[in-house]
Fold:
Amino acid sequence: MSLPLLSRRLIFATGKGGVGKSTVALALGLAGARAGLRTIVVDLEGDGDPHETELAPGLFRLSVDPQSAMEEYLTVKVPGPAAHVLRQSRLFHTFAMATPGMRELLCIGKLWELAQFERRTPDADAFDLVVVDAPASGHGAAILRTPRTFAEIARVGPIAHQARTIADTIADPAFTAVVAVSTPEEMPVNETLELSERLSAGPEPLELQAVILNARYPDRFTAAEAAHMDSAASAAADTAPEAATPLQLALAEHRRAETQREQERRLRESFGDRLMVLPFLFERSLRLPELERLARELERTGGDPASASKEQTP
Ligand SMILES: Nc1ncnc2c1ncn2[C@@H]1O[C@H](COP(=O)(O)OP(=O)(O)O)[C@@H](O)[C@H]1O
Ligand SMILES: [Mg+2]
Structure:
């Protein structure tokens, strides 16, 4: 398999808002579909389409919110008239939704269900890979811990049992991968490092299996060229301002790329080979062809040859 991450069934993409988390989740999903996996990208903000829609061959998308996850759970899990009574009960909904962690548990239960070979939803086809467009870092980490917390609080009974099963698969790095998305800027990088620490703390440490540096500016000029442009821009400033402006713009982009490299080094120091890099795409909007470019980049930079050959199965 070209991208070792794709051997997992559940991939959580998390990161600070605005870093391109949704874009990267789709690119990962596309890489999955390109590898022949029936893949679904699920967004947990819950403002998209609550039906499984096909974006590209083998690539589906779904938006999950706690309310509909709850409805589905009741329909499938609670037998007969009891479900009906519970569904109609506003008190039950208010109570369940106000229970700390219940929303997260319902969402993650739905994700887990999608990643099962046998789905509990009648007539639903199984997926080989579920990519989660998770909420921003802090909340994303909390979601991963919820099932264990529930299992410990409930101890016995069906909810405890199911929460435990889900918690076990999340703790299993062969089943679940947590991936952080970051731009090469100071705040998102800080947040990625904090997330990594938060995940590795506690009795059940989780490891970031990959960090995806998104929207990296290209290296256009060498340091010598930049110095040359700098003096040319100063010389032109008074005599030919129309020539100075494009030089100054190019220099500004060059400096931005330089500060990006500093942040890239910080990530490289902490994550080494787990770091994958995606370029900044200068297109107006990112559609399927651009996502495909990103998917190919992931296959290229994420295909650690050592683990790739190890994981190749006929
Ligand atoms: N590699 C990239 N190159 C250029 N633009 C990007 C890239 N990744 C994301 N974007 C753009 O950045 C904006 C935010 O991306 P999005 O995936 O919605 O971020 P998030 O889900 O983290 O809030 C979108 O307009 C998206 O098209
Ligand atoms: Mg998003």
Observations:
- The CA atoms of residues 85 and 308 lie 51 Å apart.
- The chain has a mean pLDDT of 86.
